[in-house]
Structure formats: structure tokens, C-alpha cells
């Protein structure tokens, strides 16, 4: 499992780690039923503190994506709901847009323009 973090991302590290794991599950790199490596190993691979990874894993457990089992580690329960994931990203986009003085209507128009360019 190859996870990466963006050092320029302004989000807290635990959110970035959770997003990276969520993406890996959504992309099928990690399937439901698969066990994740120990938090210590993930932390070492990502260059973050083990407590940061544990917080991310707890967040994903609270979302219903992961299951913690004593003696068996952390397993993937299900894939994330794409609509819910996009909703989170849309919130992030709107938060970023506010920094540039854009309204939600401006962002909608921008997304429509990009959609037309991609079609």
C-alpha cells in the first residue's frame, strides 16, 4: 500500500492521512476485508507520528470504513460512499474559494466551465 502526503496541504496531518487511506480504499488498492499495516509502520512510511495515524484510523472507524479487532488489527469494512467523499471535497473547495473572495455561485459556474472543457 503506497500512501503519500502533500507537504503543501494546509489541512492537519491526521486529516491528510485519513484522506490518503480513504482514497486507497476507494481506488480499490485496499479492499474490504483487507488488514491495514500496524499504525507504527504506516507512521514510519509517511514520516508522521504514530498518534497522528491512530487518530486518522479512529476517524475512519467512526465513519464506518474501518473495524478495530483486538488481536487482529485494523480491517477495511467497506468502500467509502463516493457522494460523501465528494461532499467533503466540495466543502474544502468552498472554504478555499472564500479565501479568494468567491461565492458558492461563482464556484458552481467555475465547475460548469471546467466540465464543459472536459467534455
Automatic annotation (TrEMBL):
Keywords noted in UniProt: DNA-binding, Pyridoxal phosphate, Transcription, Transcription regulation
Q: Name one GO molecular function term.
A: DNA-binding transcription factor activity
* Pfam families to which the protein is assigned, alphabetical: GntR
* Coiled-coil boundaries: none
> What PROSITE patterns does the annotation carry?
HTH_GNTR
Ranges of residues in domain HTH gntR-type: 11-79
Q: Which domain of life is it from?
A: Bacteria
Name of the protein described by the UniProt record: Transcriptional regulator, GntR family
Its taxonomic path starts at: Bacteria, Bacillati, Actinomycetota, Actinomycetes, Streptosporangiales
Amino acid at each position: 500500500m503506497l500512501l503519500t502526503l502533500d507537504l503543501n496541504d494546509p489541512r492537519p496531518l491526521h486529516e491528510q492521512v485519513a484522506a490518503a487511506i480513504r482514497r486507497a480504499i476507494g481506488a480499490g488498492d485496499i479492499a474490504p476485508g483487507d488488514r491495514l499495516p500496524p499504525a507504527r509502520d504506516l507512521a514510519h512510511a509517511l514520516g508522521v507520528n504514530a498518534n497522528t495515524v491512530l487518530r486518522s484510523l479512529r476517524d475512519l472507524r467512526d465513519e464506518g470504513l474501518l473495524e478495530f479487532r483486538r488481536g487482529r488489527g485494523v480491517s477495511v469494512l467497506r468502500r467509502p460512499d463516493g457522494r460523501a467523499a465528494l461532499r467533503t471535497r466540495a466543502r474544502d473547495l468552498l472554504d478555499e474559494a472564500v479565501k479568494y473572495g468567491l461565492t458558492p455561485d461563482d464556484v458552481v459556474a467555475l465547475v460548469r466551465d471546467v466540465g464543459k472543457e472536459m467534455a
